[in-house]
Design a protein that fits this description.
Number of domains: 2
Strand content: 5-15%
Distance between the termini: 44 Å
Oligomer: single chain
Length: 115
């Protein structure tokens, strides 16, 4: 049980590292040239080095989906993906988006939004 928990934490940390600290610069024009066998090899190499059993890569632009592909073991409806504290950066992003659209003021007392 302890080893399973440690493995889940390690995999989660690797996934979070991969998501937030690696970058692929992709441009909408010529995207078909970017997503080739070299790209696949890079994704698979990073997946293996991070000990991830599966990963899905999706790239979007304002026009829509540019690229979408799954790598590794196929997941099912019963596959459990631990998220741990991943909701915190997503909540922060949502709050900043609301601020960007002038729907909230971060300097305002939070209680003014709760009543």
């Amino acid at each position: 049980m302890k080893n399973s928990k440690m493995l889940l934490q390690t995999v989660s940390a690797a996934l979070i590292f991969f998501i937030f600290f690696t970058q692929f610069q992709v441009y909408a024009y010529g995207a078909e040239d970017v997503f080739n066998e070299d790209f696949d090899a890079e994704i698979i190499g990073r997946m293996i080095s991070a000990h991830l059993p599966t990963i899905t890569v999706s790239v979007f632009t304002e026009e829509g989906t540019v690229f979408e592909k799954g790598y590794g073991e196929q997941s099912s409806l019963d596959t459990i993906f631990p998220l741990y504290s991943l909701n915190k950066p997503l909540l922060a992003l949502a709050i900043l988006k609301l601020q960007e659209e002038n729907l909230i003021d971060l300097e305002e007392d939070v209680n003014s939004y709760l009543s």
